[in-house]
Design a protein that fits this description.
about 450 residues, mainly alpha, 23 helices, about 70% helix
Length: about 450
C-alpha cells in the first residue's frame, strides 16, 4: 500500500497543530518586541519632558500639578505637553512629522537657497507617497498619528507572517520562527513601530522576494513596483528581481532578454510614477534631487572624492567604541548610542548575505544580493556625508534573506542558549535605540 489514510490523517492533524503553534509564536514575538519598543520610546519621551520642564526626581511629586496644568491643550504649556507625550508623539518624531504634514497638507515644494533655515530647506517631497496614501483613509477614523501607527504595526505583523510562511515552506518550522525572531529583535526593528515607511517597505519586500523565489515573476514585479513607491532604497529590489528572473525563469536567453526590459519597468513603476507626479506638480522630477542636495545632504557636508572612495565616513562610525575604552567607565554611555551599532549591524548583514551565497541553493543566491545593493545605493546617494551614512542600518532592516541564512545556521549549528543570547543582545540595543528616538534625538 502506497498511502495509508490513517497515517495521512494523523500527519495533517500534526501539521495543523504545528501551524497554529507557529502562528501564535510569531504573534507573541511581535507583541513582546513591540511592547519593549513602546515602553522605551515613552520612557525617553518622559525624560525629554522632565528635562524641558526642569523637573527634579521623583516624578510622582509633580504628577498632580502636571495633570492640572497640562490637561488644557489650548494653552502653550498644554500644547508643549501634547507635542512630547500625547497623541502618540513619542512614536512619530523626526521623519514621522514630515509624513504627518503630508497627510495634513499634502506635498509642498518651493525652491530655496542653501542659506535658508534647515526647516525650510528640508521639504517633504523627499518622502515617497505610498505610506501616506495607505494612511490617509484611516485618518478619518483614527486621526493622523493614529492612522500612521496603526498602518506600520499591521504592515510589520503582515510582513512577519509572510516571512514565517515563506521560510516554513522553504526551510523548516524552526528556521521560520527564528527568522521572525531575528527580524523583530534586530536593533533597527524599532522603526517598524514608528511613523516611518519601513514597515510597509518590509511587507512589500518580503512578498516580492517570496514570489520571486516561487518564480511568479510578473506578480513579483508588480509588488516590487509598489515597494519602490515607499522608499528610494527599495530600488535595490529591482536588480535582485531581475537577476532572479534571468537565472531562474524558463525560456531561451533571447526570450528572457526580450521580457527583461518591460519587467524592469513594472518593477520600478513606483519610483517612475512618483517622478511623473513631481514633473506634473512642480515642473520637473529633478526637484527631488535638488531638494535632497540642498535641503537634506548639502554639498558642504559631503565627503571629498578621496574620503568618498575610501569610505572614510563609514569607518568613522566606529569611533564610539574607541570612546568607550578611552573614557571607561563613563565611556560606556556610548554603547547606548544608536550610531555605535550602525556599521557593525550593516557589516553583519552584509557578511551573512555574502557568506551565505556558498550555502544556499543556486536559485536563492540572487535574493541574497539585496543587502549589498541597498548598502551601495544608500552610500552612493549619501555623498559620503555623515548624515547620509547614519541611517543605512535602518534601510538594511528589510534584508530578510540575510536573516533567513542566520536563522537556518543558528537552528542547525547552535544550541538554544547562544541563540537566546544573540536575540537578547539585539533586543537590548533596540531598546536603547527606541529610548533615543523617544527623546526626540536624531537616531538615523
Amino acid at each position: 500500500m502506497l498511502f495509508d489514510d490513517a497515517e495521512y490523517g494523523k500527519s495533517l492533524a500534526a501539521e495543523r497543530v504545528s501551524l497554529r503553534r507557529g502562528i501564535a509564536i510569531v504573534l507573541g514575538i511581535f507583541l513582546a518586541t513591540r511592547l519593549v519598543v513602546w515602553t522605551f520610546a515613552y520612557a525617553g519621551a518622559m525624560i525629554n519632558f522632565r528635562i524641558r520642564l526642569g523637573l527634579e526626581p521623583p516624578f510622582e511629586k509633580h504628577a498632580r500639578e502636571l495633570r492640572e496644568k497640562y490637561t488644557d491643550t489650548t494653552t502653550d504649556e498644554g500644547k508643549g505637553y501634547q507635542n512630547i507625550l500625547t497623541d502618540l508623539a513619542p512614536l512619530t518624531n523626526a521623519d514621522g512629522r514630515h509624513y504627518a504634514k503630508i497627510l495634513k497638507q499634502g506635498y509642498r515644494y518651493q525652491p530655496v537657497s542653501r542659506d535658508a533655515h534647515p526647516a525650510k530647506r528640508q521639504q517633504n517631497i523627499a518622502f515617497f507617497p505610498l505610506y501616506p496614501l495607505v494612511c490617509y483613509p484611516l485618518t478619518y477614523l483614527f486621526g493622523v498619528h493614529g492612522a500612521m501607527i496603526l498602518v506600520v504595526h499591521l504592515a510589520a505583523l503582515a510582513g512577519g507572517f509572510a516571512l514565517y510562511f515563506w521560510v516554513r515552506q522553504r526551510v523548516d518550522e524552526r528556521a521560520a520562527r527564528f527568522s521572525v525572531a531575528c527580524l523583530f529583535c534586530l536593533p533597527t526593528a524599532c522603526y517598524f513601530s514608528f511613523g516611518y515607511a519601513e514597515s510597509l517597505t518590509l511587507l512589500l519586500t518580503v512578498v516580492t522576494l517570496m514570489l520571486a523565489d516561487r518564480r511568479a515573476f510578473l506578480v513579483a514585479a508588480v509588488v516590487c513596483g509598489l515597494a519602490t513607491a515607499t522608499r528610494p532604497t527599495a530600488l535595490g529590489l529591482v536588480p535582485v528581481l531581475m537577476l532572479a528572473y534571468w537565472f531562474n525563469a524558463g525560456g531561451t536567453r533571447t526570450q528572457r532578454l526580450g521580457r527583461l526590459a518591460p519587467l524592469t519597468i513594472v518593477a520600478a513603476s513606483g519610483i517612475l510614477l512618483y517622478a511623473g507626479y513631481l514633473a506634473y506638480r512642480f515642473g520637473s522630477p529633478l526637484v527631488y534631487l535638488h531638494n535632497f542636495r540642498v535641503g537634506w545632504i548639502p554639498d558642504s557636508t559631503r565627503a571629498d572624492w578621496l574620503q568618498y572612495l575610501t569610505l572614510a565616513r563609514v569607518w568613522d562610525q566606529f569611533k564610539y567604541f574607541g570612546r568607550v575604552i578611552e573614557g571607561f567607565p563613563i565611556g560606556l554611555v556610548n554603547l547606548v548610542n544608536p550610531f555605535a551599532w550602525n556599521m557593525p549591524l550593516n557589516f553583519m548583514i552584509l557578511f551573512l548575505s555574502l557568506a551565505g551565497l556558498a550555502f544556499v541553493p543556486r536559485s536563492f543566491r540572487p535574493l541574497l544580493l539585496l543587502a549589498p545593493f541597498i548598502f551601495v545605493h544608500s552610500y552612493a546617494a549619501s555623498g559620503g556625508a555623515t548624515f547620509g551614512v547614519e541611517p543605512i542600518a535602518r534601510y538594511m532592516s528589510v534584508s530578510v534573506p540575510a536573516f533567513i541564512v542566520l536563522a537556518a545556521w543558528c537552528t542547525r549549528e547552535l544550541r538554544p542558549a547562544p541563540r537566546y543570547v544573540l536575540l537578547t543582545v539585539m533586543m537590548l540595543i533596540q531598546a536603547a535605540w527606541s529610548f533615543h528616538f523617544g527623546m526626540d534625538e536624531w537616531s538615523g
